[in-house]
Amino acid sequence: MPRRYITVEEQQQIIERAKSRCEYCQCPMAYSAQPFVFEHIIAVVQALLYNPRHQQWQAHFAWSDDYLHIIGLTPTGRATVEALKLNRAGVINIRRLLRLAGHHPFTE
Questions:
Q1: Which of 35, 68, 85, 97 lies at a C-alpha separation of 20 to 30 Å from 5?
Q2: Which pLDDT score, from 0 to 100, does residue 88 have?
Q3: What is the mean pLDDT of residues 39-60?
Q4: How far apart, in Å, are the Cα atoms of 16 and each of 27, 54, 57?
Q5: Contacts of 1 by beta carbon, 8 Å cutoff, 6+ apart
Q6: How far apart are alpha carbons 19 and 15 in whole angstroms?
């Protein structure tokens, strides 16, 4: 099956729907050290990963008391945190700085 690429218009729709944040780690796009990837991550192993198109973030994740670490609440949440390394050092440092600046955690 040929790979389908996401158009610029579709990318803009995704950014708007996600409120300019990573739908996995909730990092604001403006502060990300790496460009966002628009294709949904599909697990190729047995562990099911969180799907932001069909699942609610709050059902699978919570913040630690200091808001620096994402805690997986369900098997899907825990597998996603581990597989995507959502608590790697660089992301925690960004969260720490954003917290000090009043931009983390994101609340709607």
A1: 85
A2: 93
A3: 80
A4: 14, 16, 17
A5: none
A6: 6
Burial of 50 (0-12, 13-18, 19+ CB in 10 A): buried
Q: Hey, where are the domains in the chain? A: 8-100
Between CA 27 and CA 30 the distance in angstroms is 9
Bigger pLDDT: 22 vs 36: 22
Q: Is 24 left (phi over 0), alpha (psi -120 to 50) or beta?
A: alpha
Residue keyed to tokens 């620096």: 68
For residue 88, the one-letter residue type is R
Residues with Cβ within 8 Å of residue 50, at least 6 apart in sequence? 24, 57, 60, 61, 76, 77, 80
